[in-house]
Amino acid sequence: MRLARLLLLILLPCAVAQAQKAPQPVPEYFNLGPLGGKCISQLAAAGQPAGLLIAKVTDSAPAAKAGLKPGDVLTGCADNDFGKNPWRELALAIETAEAAEDHSLKLKAQRGTETLQLTATLAPPAKASAGGLAPGAALRDKLIADALAWLSRQQQPDGSWQNNFSVENGLVVQTSLAGLCFLAAGFTPEKGDYATELRKAAEFVLETVGEQKQYKRLQGKNNDQTHWSLGYGAIFLAHVQHQTDAKWLAKSSLKGIKSKLKWIAGRIQSGMEDGGGFGHGPGGPNALDYIELEAMSNLLLSALGCMQRCGIEPDAKKLDKMLEFARACTDEDGNVAYSTTAPQSAVKSPARSAALANAMASLRKTDDPIYAKVQACAQRNLEHAFDGHSTPTMHQLAFAMAAWRGGADNWAEYWKHNRVELTMARNPGGSFAYRPTPETAMMGTNLDRDLTEVWTTSHWVLILCLEKGGLPLWCSK
Hints:
This protein is α+β, with helices and mostly antiparallel strands. It has helices at 2-17, 62-66, 86-99, 137-154, 168-184, 195-208, 226-243, 246-251, 257-270, 294-308, 316-328, 350-362, 369-380, 392-405, 408-425, 438-443, 447-450, 453-465; strands spanning 30-31, 37-42, 51-57, 73-77, 80-81, 104-111, 114-121, 217-218, 221-222, 336-337, 348-349. Helix 7 runs parallel beside helix 10.
């Protein structure tokens, strides 16, 4: 509950800034994938079959066209009743139907006392691979193309993408992630179908990165969140610098990127705490009376690694101290704790292990003994990519990056466990949805949901772009 309180305080400034009422509890829904809609997983009970209670149906999507309505209970598909995991069974049936010649999927539903037999016709996808592994180049590229078109439509006139997180910092974080999607797909601010979107995004981040003018204190406590902005902003701008023609950059509105990156590197290093870790931002203890969180170290170490590859070297002594903090958070099995101080030191997560492995690889520290431990921990836990708190989709990206860097076998293992997640995250319009987890249900909040579909879509696009050589500074082999 303490963590849930902190998440509420992080989101509260945006609600205040928009003059909204305090957010009310919102039910968590599972996505219906390409069928279009939302549902609640329902266990068998007296007079009620096991199935998926339909909460929402997307207009003009396959589920709606088939006749499925809110309140219906989906009890089976493809001539089979659901078993113990209806949502996963539906996902596998969707994949089979998409690969079939007529793309049709039979659905069995209960509407009151009436049993319905419906047929949904899925939109013909690009050819998918079989066997539950990576989606295959054709399907992958179509999903990326559809998602980029959707992201382009969500961009705001000032070049940013909306994000319900900490007002100014959240806009920089989301704009950096969305901008990385276009870069990872092979576009630059200089050329390509999305050059304008990228240029405007980079201009926005250049102007606003690391700035927080509002709500730096809440309820008398430190609420500086600028390290998120500095970390994601640096990763994005470093990739712009790396992937865009230098001569074009020098004559463009983005000519100040290298200077801005040097400024960001200085801000990050000056924000390090005495113990070598980082808080959400400088300024002392947060609302829960602690400062350092190892997840922030992972982000900022990754940012320093990306900037290092652009010729901006971090201070060696400070970097050593940062790495010592990360090592102190890591146990013998490679599990990484929330922080070094109790009680946070007892909260360990392989998602942080994956993120630390990615950070050390970005810094070219793969010969460090701790790298082998955290990389191995990530590889052992690929089936748990949605476990952990805060934002499950961010964990997906961390695990995917570690798996991709780990080689073909690890990449196949990642998709063995997570292809169903990709299938059911897909929306008919090209975006990707959140999903509930046991921890988000326990906490009563899900940042993937609350940060909007731009957030979840950006993470899935970056995962899909790894095979295309996307994120060369952050996730090089």
